[in-house]
Amino acid sequence: MATAPEHLDVPPAIVFRAMAEGDVSQVLAIERAAYAFPWSEGIFRDCVRVGYTCRAVELAGELIGYGILSAGAGEAHILNICVREEFRCRGVGRRLLEHLMALAREEGMSEVFLEVRPSNTAAIRLYQSLGFRQIGMRRGYYQASGGREDAVVLKCALEHLHC
Ligand SMILES: CC(C)(COP(=O)(O)OP(=O)(O)OC[C@H]1O[C@@H](n2cnc3c(N)ncnc32)[C@H](O)[C@@H]1OP(=O)(O)O)[C@@H](O)C(=O)NCCC(=O)NCCS
To answer: Which atom of ligand 1 lies nearest, measured to the CA of 92?
Structure first.
């Protein structure tokens, strides 16, 4: 049987686990490399402390990504999802998002919301491919180098999710 090229493989051994405060320094390094306007260390520590669903993605014991979800009143919000640059485009982000959506459904949530920069086409394609649809726009929501950037608001219903 033909083997798929390595760059197209989803790393089979990725593991999702709860993020602990001890992970924050590594998470912060990935965050700072990924975003022009990264979250602060305090934001990540608060997310862990207040009990948001914070997940670390590991490959062979190495932290290669993370995702943060808040849930309540039937709604989940994906607050952050990030994959270390050298591990992107291999299906890790898709598996992480599916994992967070499955956790939200297990917690009894019926819908997931998120915001994304209109310029972030990689993330938008990922979200659309998993069923997210635009429901609105927040004007000037994000910091940007030339001033502010809008946020596209996306929503996905969870009732038909099978992951
Ligand atoms: C968005 C992000 C999490 C995607 O992670 P990833 O592991 O590279 O994504 P995957 O390999 O699982 O790709 C899933 C889908 O996303 C889309 N996608 C991912 N990277 C893309 C790119 N560079 N260009 C276009 N589409 C892309 C594709 O639709 C892809 O499906 P396909 O492989 O069938 O074409 C990653 O790019 C990232 O960490 N970016 C920096 C942080 C960020 O912007 N987070 C989102 C904030 S809202």
So the answer is: 7
| This model's pTM is above 0.70 | yes
Cβ(33) to ligand 1 under 6 A? no
pLDDT of 25 higher than 70: yes
Does the annotation count 142 as an active-site position? no
Percent of the chain that is helix, strand, coil (3-state, to 5): 35, 35, 30
67-95 pLDDT, tens per residue?
Answer: 999 999 999 999 999 999 999 999 999 99
Residue 37 lies in a domain: yes
pLDDT at 160: 66
- CATH number for 108: 3.40.630.30
Locate tokens 């099978």: which residue? Answer: 162
Q: Is 130 exposed, middle or buried (0-12, 13-18, 19+ CB in 10 A)?
A: middle
